[in-house]
């Protein structure tokens, strides 16, 4: 099972006035235990900041659901949708009764277009979180590729070579 995230608070770069500017557009949501906040493929609405509780981020692969990460207080998810408005690439479900703040896409984009220092600092914080997650994904891919390579005496199973190639490509992205 993936370990719980210990990401820094993404808005730690903000002054008190900038925090108030961002807080003004955020929306509070309460999410009961075992309730899905959003699902894979859903239209994006923005970034979520976990105020309290815990969420599991999961991805369905065939008939199985895989937990990608557990996120607790101070963690964010949905960062890509805040910046690009791409559809959700995983599902997020509350493990316990939880509370989040939604930073909605459209008002945030308006702040960015206006050159808001607060919005620009949020983007810098998001970049840091995404970089940490990419580094963790690279480490996991290296671990999986090492397992595959150590078993090369046995005939290769379908997909193993593709996994190694994917790992190499993802490592390049992190530079």
- Fraction of helical residues: 40-55%
**Low-confidence sequence ranges:** 1-8
Cross-sheet strand order for the largest sheet:
1-8-3-6
**Strand-residue fraction?**
25-35%
Output the CATH class name of the domain at 16-117. Mainly Beta
How many individual β-strands?
8
Task: State the CATH superfamily name of the domain at 16-117.
Answer: Jelly Rolls
CATH architecture of the domain at 16-117: Sandwich
Helix vs. strand class: alpha+beta
The main β sheet shows up as:
4 strands, antiparallel
What's the shape?
globular
Mean pLDDT: 83
Radius of gyration: 18 Å
Q: What series of H and E elements makes up the topology? A: HEEEEEEHEEHHH
CATH-defined fold name of the domain at 16-117? Jelly Rolls
Question: What report would you give on this structure?
Answer:
The structure is a single chain. With 175 residues, the chain is an alpha+beta fold. The chain is built from five helices and eight strands; from the N terminus they run αββββββαββααα. It starts with 15 loop residues before the first helix and ends with a helix.
Brief characterization of the structure:
The chain is an alpha+beta fold and about 180 residues long. The protein has helices at about 15-25, 80-85, 105-115, 115-150, 160-175, and strands spanning about 25-30, 35-40, 45-50, 55-60, 65-70, 75, 90-95, 100-105.
Outline the fold blueprint.
Layout: H1 16-25, E1 27-31, E2 36-38, E3 46-52, E4 54-61, E5 64-72, E6 76-77, H2 79-84, E7 91-94, E8 98-104, H3 105-113, H4 117-150, H5 160-173
Antiparallel strand pairs: 1-8, 2-7, 3-6, 3-8, 4-5, 4-7
Helix pairs in contact: 3-4, 4-5
